[in-house]
Amino acid sequence: MIAMAVLALSSAASAQGRDPILVPEVSQHEVLVQQGFTGQTLLLYGALLDPDGSRAGDDFDIVVILRGPSEPVQIREKQRFAGIWINAEAMSLRSVPSFFGLSSSAPIADIVDESTAAIYEFGLDYLQLSPTGTIDPEQHARFTSGLVDLRRETGLYVQDEQGVSISEGVLYQARIYLPSNVVVGRYVAETFAVRDGRVIAAASSEVLVRKEGFDRDVAEQAVDNSFAYGLLAVFLSLFMGWAAGRLFALV
Predict the structure, then answer these.
(1) Exposed site from 70, 171, 183, 228, fewest CB < 10 Å?
(2) 162 and 237: one domain?
């Protein structure tokens, strides 16, 4: 009996010494992009519990990141020359998230230092967008800043530093909106619990964004029968141009 009591006390002490556990969930793990798709709001929620199953307390913050499939990107800078805009310098990036949405329970600068924010990419200012070759740091900062600004304007990059609500020191929830121009593929929803400037728990889940119906059929044909698809696109363009010309001629 004494041995069992000692074992129980030892297990409790061990549990108290371990970091909390994150239990994340997403409102839906599949988003269908059909004709007329206008966007979708995802609810990312879950709980932060101590190893013994009790509430973790009130002294933590939550950061949620929804990241889309990565893709190589080439950025071109335009300059005005002789009254017209022309392509000037260019830069290629190896891996750029097609979508990046961050939501947190407090401003990032208030919960972690810059080094930790950079390690976990907590925010658009800390995205690690690496060029394919050597490039001047000032030029790299200018190009990446321009890319982030463009994607913010189109709704593909979002950041809400007051978007996570925490209830009773256990439950959290955040909403991140996927616009209609999202790229299809596998999205990763990452959740981080932060206490005293340190990430104490992390977990992730996946969301599949895929085309459905006529849009999917067109996309599949463009990949599987690219030559025929190209010829059909050219033919339709010529036909529509001819039809429009005949219509205006009759008016």
Answers:
(1) 228
(2) no
- In terms of average pLDDT, the best of 46-60, 127-141, 229-243 is 127-141
Which stretches of the chain are assigned E, i.e. beta strand? Answer: 21-26, 30-33, 40-49, 61-67, 70-81, 84-97, 100-104, 157-160, 165-167, 171-178, 185-195, 198-211
The answer to pTM > 0.90 is no
Q: Are residues 223 and 115 in the same domain?
A: no
- Between the alpha carbon of residue 225 and those of residues 121, 197, 219, 228, 236, the distances in Å are 39, 52, 10, 6, 16
Domain that holds residue 227: 213-251
Element holding 21 (H helix, E strand): strand 21-26
Express each pLDDT in 151-170 by its tens digit.
999 999 999 999 999 998 88
Tell me: do 111 and 198 sit in the same domain. yes
Q: 89 pLDDT band (50/70/90 cuts)?
A: confident
> Between 89 and 53, where is the model more confident?
89
Same domain, 142 and 246: no
Compute the distance between CA of residue 177 and CA of residue 158 in angstroms, rounded to an integer.
Answer: 9
Q: Are residues 169 and 223 in the same domain?
A: no
